[in-house]
Amino acid sequence: MKRLFLLVALLMLSAQRDPILVPEVSQDDVQVQQGFTGTELLLFGVILDPTGARAGEDYDIVVVLKGPTEPITVREKARVGGIWVNADSTAFQSAPSFFAVASSRPIEEIVDERTAAIYELGLGYLQLSPTGAIDPEEQTRFTAGLVDLRSRQGLYKEDPSGVQISEQVLYQVRISLPSNVQTGTYTAETFAITRGRVIASAIAEVEVRKVGFERFVEVFSERQSLFYGFLAVFLSVGMGWVAGRLFALI
User: Is there a single domain that holds both residue 218 and residue 202?
Assistant: First the structure.
């Protein structure tokens, strides 16, 4: 009976024709401390057929790097009486704090819109979860506003020619993390695509965390929020008083 099970397993493995994707990240632990100006991640890997040989078909690679999701409220400005004020707004339950897409060719040349939307292969296909009912046109407008804002902050980006493929075996891409990235677990999902079909995918993780004094402040603010608030107010008032005294002496 054991031999029969072993034979069936071997037949199943030999029947598997989709290639295997093996991703890696140059730095899986990013430490944020005083003076942090950002960093650059190198994501690389290989794609092989199940026997370990070179994959037979040509393929494209798309890499999607996502930061931790967070709830966010997007507000729209309107000019009333010559003054810019907050007008309409909408809330999203889970917007990625960081979102970067890099591909070996422009996405529209690799897959159709339906596949791109399923796997979120681009800023135009980012799927956000609004809180409550919202008009589709309004959701599209606010989503575009959020993407534009975070793109200008360096938190959302896409590079249609950022992935380099060598001999249809090795691939690599460099994605920059700016200094204002949020801490948490980042997921790098890599897709191998042939003839508009995703033939393999794999996920690697990157941990972004604060260390040193920044970590102490973060933990203290979370665990002792009341004392942290009092201390922040005391320091603000004290620094204001000292600055006032200095200016009075000049």
Answer: no
**241/173 same-domain check:** no
pTM, to two decimals: 0.74
Instruction: With respect to residue 103, please indicate whether it lies within any of the assigned structural domains.
Output: yes
In this structure, are 184 and 227 located in the same domain?
no
- Pair 57, 27 in one domain: yes
3-state SS of the chain is CHHHHHHHHHHHHHHCCCCEEEEEECCCEEEECCCCCCEEEEEEEEEECCCCCECCCCCEEEEEEECCEEEEEEEEEEEECCEEEEEEEEEEEEEECCEEEEECCCHHHCCCHHHHHHHCCCHHHCCCCECCCCCHHHHHHHHHHHHHHHHHCCCEEEECCCCEEECCCEEEEEEEECCCCCCEEEEEEEEEEECCEEEEEEEEEEEEEECCHHHHHHHHHHHCHHHHHHHHHHHHHHHHHHHHHHHHHC
**Residue 5 in domain:** no
**Per-residue pLDDT tens listing for the chain (250 residues):** 444 343 334 444 444 566 788 888 988 888 887 778 889 999 999 887 665 555 556 889 999 999 999 888 888 777 776 777 767 778 888 899 999 999 999 999 999 999 999 999 999 999 887 777 677 777 888 888 899 999 999 999 999 999 999 888 889 999 999 989 888 999 999 999 999 999 899 999 999 987 654 544 555 455 556 655 655 666 676 666 666 666 666 6
Domain containing residue 244: 212-250
